[in-house]
Amino acid sequence: MGFKRLLAGVGAGGASVETVLRSAHVAPGGTIAGDIHVIGGTVDQVIERVAVSLATRVEIESGDNEYLSNVEFSRQVVWGSFQVQPGQRFAIPFELVLPWETPITVLGGRAVGSSVGVRTELEIARSIDKGDLDPIAVHPLPAQSLILDALVRLGFGFRRADVEKGHIRGVHQALPFYQEIEFAPGRNYPGINELEVTFVAGPTSMYVVLEADKRGGMFTEGHDSFHGFTVDYASASNTDWAGVLHNWLSSIGQRRSFF
Questions:
Q1: pTM of the complete model beyond 0.85
Q2: Mean pLDDT over all residues of the chain?
Q3: Can you give the residue range of the structural domain that contains 16?
Q4: I need a surface site. Which of 88, 138, 181, 231 has the fewest CB within 10 A?
C-alpha cells in the first residue's frame, strides 16, 4: 500500500516530482521505501541533487514562550546531478531507515498527536525546493506495545503525545528530542495526577522513563516522581509488565501526605 503527493514544480516550466511510498506504515528501526518519479517540464533542466528526509513536529521552549517547529532528523541523498529533458519521465527508488528513537504516531490505529513525515528535496541551480511532508504511520515496537498495553490494563487512559526538544538527564540519546506519551491515571492510583512515558529505543533494548505527577496533600505541594528501567527486546515478552508497573505506581500513589 502506498500514497502519493505531487510536489510543486521548480521554476516556470520546470520539472516536478511525485513521491510514491510502497507503504506508509513502519516501526522505529524499520525502513520506508518508495520511488521518486521525476517528470520533465517544458525546458531542459539540470537537477543537481535529490534527497529524502524525515522530520517531526517538535515543541521548543524559548524563554517564557513555546512554539512548534518541523525538525529534520534523518536525511539521505538518493541521486546526484542529472539532466531532465522536456516531458521525460523516470523513477528513482529509495530506502530510508528510521532511527530507533523515531516518535510513535499511531497507537491501536489511533493518531496520538505527534507527526512524522517524509520530505523530498530537489536542488536546482543552487536553490533548494523542499516539498511538503508526506505523513507516515509510525507504530510502536513490540516491546513498547507491551508497556503501553500493561498501562491500559492497569486502568490508565491515553491522553496525547508530544515531542520536546532536549535531552533526558543521564540517558544517552541519538536524537535532539524525545517523545512524551501522556496518560490519565486509573482509579486505583488516586495519588497520581498524570503519567508520562518516554521510550529511548535502540537496536536490542530500550530505556523507559516514567514520570508520575503526584498530587499534593492538604498542606503539601505536588511533585514529580521518576522511574527508569531497561527493557531487552529478547526477553520482554517473558515479563509481567502490569505487575512490575503496578508495584512502582502503587507505591507512588500511596505516598500521599496530608500533614
A1: yes
A2: 86
A3: 4-138
A4: 88
